[in-house]
């Protein structure tokens, strides 16, 4: 009976038919890794150019390390007012942007935090000042948690906050802070951050405005397999509601929880690291479930070159950015750096052609 059921699921995936939550669980648990990879790779080839793998030059800059949410998986943030708190200055932005431009990039990935003293007016001024001085600069900035926090703080709608930020110069909205979009999990790992529906509501509004957005998942901590699958289906459902002419989620990026030194690991000492096979299986399942999101990025920073190359045969068609600067996962044990040659060589040695892209996943080379 099991043999019949799993082969029926194989046939549905092979013919491009959307599978259910229960079928997704069966596929993950019963399909050999090689079969799951094959099915995901076939889906990838149907959705994107099979010869190309994308990459980008951007720079991850943290606006501040002050954040009241104090998520238990994060080693980077400090409580607002802490002696080690900082807010990046305009002179520091100038230095970072000049370096970015010298390396051929034009985008900042600006990550913030819920700082009680930094509201909407701070961010609109920052974005407009950056764009006035560097008109060609692209700002891939903040995330739904920060948008929801600003809206609540200013007693404004998500729509109004997004309109103000885009008018000031924000070009696209990252899918930061998704973690696992199930409140049981969020109440353990990030109880002071927006809940799952609030995160999704911000993205629904961004899609109605035509903003480029991305989606993410951090897994391998306190969530169950069923909750990972629920996360994927909630993203899929939001993507299905975008206007036809809106980009919506242009990509999905899953990465494993990096536990070193985190409060979450101290609280949950039985958490085990995500092994390579588990990461590849989860990435492949993501490609199969998220059949309405064209691009899937493997996390080279967290899994390394060898596994990233394998992921290119398991549904992934992108390896992300060179790593000029990264502060969050490096504070939890990641020691890798990523240069241009690292990315392009990794792609070429796997048998694909590297293509430089922008945040909308349009090739620019």
TrEMBL record:
Give the UniProt keywords, A-Z. Answer: 4Fe-4S, Iron, Iron-sulfur, Metal-binding, S-adenosyl-L-methionine
For S-adenosyl-L-methionine, which residues are the binding ones? Answer: 73, 179
- Positions with a binding annotation for (3R)-3-methyl-D-ornithine: 299, 321
State the free-text cofactor note. Binds 1 [4Fe-4S] cluster. The cluster is coordinated with 3 cysteines and an exchangeable S-adenosyl-L-methionine.
Instruction: State where [4Fe-4S] cluster binds.
Output: 67, 71, 74
Q: Which CDD domains match?
A: Radical_SAM
**Could you tell me which residue ranges the Radical SAM core domain spans?**
53-294
MF terms (GO), sorted A to Z: 4 iron, 4 sulfur cluster binding; 7,8-didemethyl-8-hydroxy-5-deazariboflavin synthase activity; metal ion binding; transferase activity, transferring alkyl or aryl (other than methyl) groups
Q: Which Gene3D superfamilies match?
A: Aldolase class I (3.20.20.70)
What the entry lists under InterPro entries is as follows:
Aldolase_TIM, CofH/MnqC-like_C, Elp3/MiaA/NifB-like_rSAM, F420, FO_synthase_su2, rSAM, rSAM_sf
Q: Which cofactor does it need?
A: [4Fe-4S] cluster
**NCBIfam families for this protein:** CofH family radical SAM protein
Q: What is this protein called?
A: FO synthase subunit 2
User: What is the scientific name of the source organism?
Assistant: Salinivirga cyanobacteriivorans
Its taxonomic path starts at: Bacteria, Pseudomonadati, Bacteroidota, Bacteroidia, Bacteroidales
